[in-house]
């Protein structure tokens, strides 16, 4: 359990608030920390009127790492100790699905090579496969891609003509949209066996291939001056192609901010942090600090948390705030947001 809480004087009074921080556009601009992000987190480490460590989580629609790897990267970059138990990424919630798929084959999309498999296996999905595994099995599945040698070496040697896929989990943002859309359509249209004859609509409905997207973001803020297309844009690309092929959209499950499932998962994570630090008790007032009205502010408002919209990410001040996602407070950056929340609760 993180040093952050081990040093706690458990007699310390439970602070009256907790935080959830978005990462991209709030704490990080691409690979670099945003100005004052470090200050904001150091305030929570005890340099505040409560003289207590204020528990917080990082709640991101990003991913592509195990929670342990992400915590290590962020701790080093932000110069503050962050524990894996404080990290809720887009795909963290899939841990709740492991029992259902322990012995079933799942396709894990996002990132490159075997990255998603390592994450899926760390969650307990023991039959997880990637796009690279499919292309290493038969490169003519998508003749426009030539796998790098490293992906061929790390690929699972699997015969997908004899390996029915039961579910497709889009863990993280796909890199090769063409190949991923093609393979998704193959799996769904052929009832799980890539390359088989297409099954009819009734068979598809009776034996559906579950499709889960973990991040609905149409756009997100990296270190480029304008927002970039996110996993939500990939989802729409897949659905547009699938509809052209079959005449209908494919039913799917959506996780990630602003979905209730993800905020419920975040609330449980925060509750665990507070209870381990201060003993059992109710979760205090929660403050979500984000840069995207569609995901961070919408989800926090729906979860009855206070929401702080910062000007360091997706939100464009010149365009104004969408009236459907008005935050509790606007702030120039994450430190201003933290100071406002603490002063409000002191
Ligand atoms: O892929 C990451 C992006 O969609 C958003 O990340 O941290 O702003 O929720 P974040
Ligand atoms: Mg963001």
TrEMBL record:
Return the Gene3D superfamilies for the record. HAD superfamily/HAD-like (3.40.50.1000)
A GO molecular function term, named singly, is: hydrolase activity
* Coiled-coil ranges (or none): none
Which BP terms does GO give this entry?
A: glycerophospholipid biosynthetic process
Kindly indicate whether the keyword Hydrolase belongs to this entry.
Answer: yes
Cellular component GO terms held in the UniProt record: mitochondrion
Entries under InterPro entries matching the protein? CDP-alcohol_PTase-I, HAD-like_sf, HAD-SF_hydro_IIA, HAD-SF_hydro_IIA_CECR5, HAD_sf
- Known SUPFAM superfamilies for this protein? HAD-like (SSF56784)
Assigned keywords, A-Z: Hydrolase
Task: Please name the NCBIfam families in this protein's record.
Answer: CECR5, HAD-SF-IIA
* Entry protein name: HAD-superfamily hydrolase
Q: Which organism is it from?
A: Gymnopus androsaceus JB14
């Amino acid at each position: 359990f993180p040093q952050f809480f081990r040093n706690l004087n458990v007699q310390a009074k439970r602070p009256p608030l907790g935080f959830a921080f978005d990462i991209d556009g709030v704490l990080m601009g691409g690979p670099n920390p945003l100005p004052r992000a470090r200050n904001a987190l150091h305030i929570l480490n005890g340099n505040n009127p409560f003289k207590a460590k204020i528990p917080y989580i990082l709640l991101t629609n990003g991913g592509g790492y195990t929670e342990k790897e992400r915590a290590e990267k962020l701790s080093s970059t932000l110069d503050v100790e962050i524990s894996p138990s404080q990290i809720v990424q887009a795909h963290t919630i899939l841990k709740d699905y492991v029992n259902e798929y322990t012995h079933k084959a799942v396709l894990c999309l996002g990132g490159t090579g075997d990255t998603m498999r390592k994450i899926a296996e760390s969650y307990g999905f023991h039959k997880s496969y990637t796009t690279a595994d499919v292309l290493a099995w038969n490169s003519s599945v998508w003749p426009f891609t030539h796998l790098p040698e490293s992906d061929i070496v790390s690929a699972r040697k699997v015969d997908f003509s004899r390996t029915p896929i039961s579910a497709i989990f889009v863990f993280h943002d796909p890199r090769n949209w063409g190949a991923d859309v093609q393979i998704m359509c193959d799996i769904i249209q052929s009832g799980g066996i890539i390359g088989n004859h297409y099954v009819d609509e009734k068979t598809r409905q009776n034996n559906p291939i579950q499709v889960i997207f973990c991040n609905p973001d149409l756009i997100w803020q990296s270190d480029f001056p304008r927002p970039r297309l996110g996993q939500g844009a990939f989802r729409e690309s897949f659905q547009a192609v699938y509809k052209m092929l079959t005449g209908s959209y494919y039913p799917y499950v959506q996780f990630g901010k602003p979905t209730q499932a993800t905020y419920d998962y975040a609330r449980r994570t925060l509750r665990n942090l507070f209870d381990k630090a201060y003993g059992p008790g109710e979760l205090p007032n929660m403050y979500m600090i984000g840069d995207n009205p569609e995901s961070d502010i919408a989800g926090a408002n729906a979860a009855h948390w206070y929401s702080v919209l910062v000007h360091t990410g997706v939100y464009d001040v010149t365009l104004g705030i969408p009236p459907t996602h008005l935050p509790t407070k606007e702030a120039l950056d994450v430190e201003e947001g933290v100071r406002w929340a603490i002063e409000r609760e002191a």
